[in-house]
Prior knowledge:
Elements: E1 17-20, H1 22-26, H2 36-46, E2 53-58, H3 71-77, E3 85-90, H4 93-101, E4 106-112, H5 115-122, H6 126-140, E5 146-152, H7 165-177, E6 182-187, H8 194-207, E7 212-217, H9 224-234, E8 238-241, H10 261-270, H11 279-287, H12 289-293, H13 301-304, H14 316-325
Helix pairs in contact: 2-3, 8-9, 10-11
Bound molecules: coenzyme A and zinc ion (ZN).
Amino acid sequence: MTQSIQDPFTKAQAPLLIQEVGPRDGFQIEAAFIPTVDKIALIDALSLCGLAKIEATSFTSPKAIPALADADEVLRGIRRQPGVVYTVLVPNLRGAERALAAGADELNLVMSTSETHNLLNLRMSREQSAGRLLEVVALTQGTQVALNVSLSTAFGCPMEGAVPEAVVLAYAQRFLEAGVRGITLCDTTGMANPRQVRALCEAFIGRFPGAELTLHLHNTRGMGLANALAGVEAGVQRFDASLGGLGGCPYAPGATGNVCTEDLVHMLQAMGYEVAVDLPRLLAAARSLPALLGHDVPGQVLHAGRSQDLHPIPASLTEIRARAEA
Ligand code: COA
Ligand code: ZN
């Protein structure tokens, strides 16, 4: 189905929902282990920012992702705010059992739509992964926990190249038919371009209008914000993003950070979109990152300030003006 290009300002649109993934996608690749109390404090600060969802951690093998080996303590230790959904990444049944025991609101099940990336990242074939994830769906039947499936490399695999749209949509359909509420289309290594994002999101929405669709973008090649806007124009309401622009995938060569939460919120609010995120509070949380991580972060609004934060007029202007008027 093709949709005519609509001006985003005239398109009646529900509020856009921002989902923070920094504590998972960002922290998973940090070289130095971030103390559990600091992870909890950052999530607690993020919980007060108006975000719709926070991916707090991942219940993966601690051998695969040692940076998040404290998932149980983190999820149990945070102060939950009403209205925020606390989700966690889960690759298999063992992860699901741990996440349920620790009280996750949502399980974000993960597999890759590229065979090569799935083998490297999850050490099994796509079919084996799909099977494991469907076991989790069966396990949670009759419980209150929500289910989302993140389809990695949906816009391209760094080793295989293009991933056919039909493959991505077929996996989405399989999980939706099994009862999963949401699907996330992930541009794991920032290969997507805005035209491609628009096309895949429109195809998805046309085929699965009732599904909760999230767009998960990385800014690896500087296309992150343009891709997000293409998603907005295609009708996507939910966006994953990472505070400070942290993030990456340990099994994707050259992967860098997610689209930066505060940069995304800043752009969308400046354009007049309804986004219920408290940007000054979000920036305050982002400002704490360099000290916490021991390195700078790529977020740009953090460095430049918001577009409405005007600079004081330099004292030299009086002299320049006088000369210009002489
Ligand atoms: N939580 C905790 N431990 C787990 C686990 C989980 N979800 N899944 C497996 N393990 C443990 C097993 O108990 C086993 O432990 P042991 O060696 O002490 O007996 C060990 O991990 C190996 O288990 P196995 O089932 O053989 O897993 P594997 O080595 O084939 O790895 C995954 C498969 C999926 C568990 C692992 O590759 C993984 O966690 N990947 C996550 C990658 C990721 O998060 N990438 C970034 C996000 S896209
Ligand atoms: Zn990611």
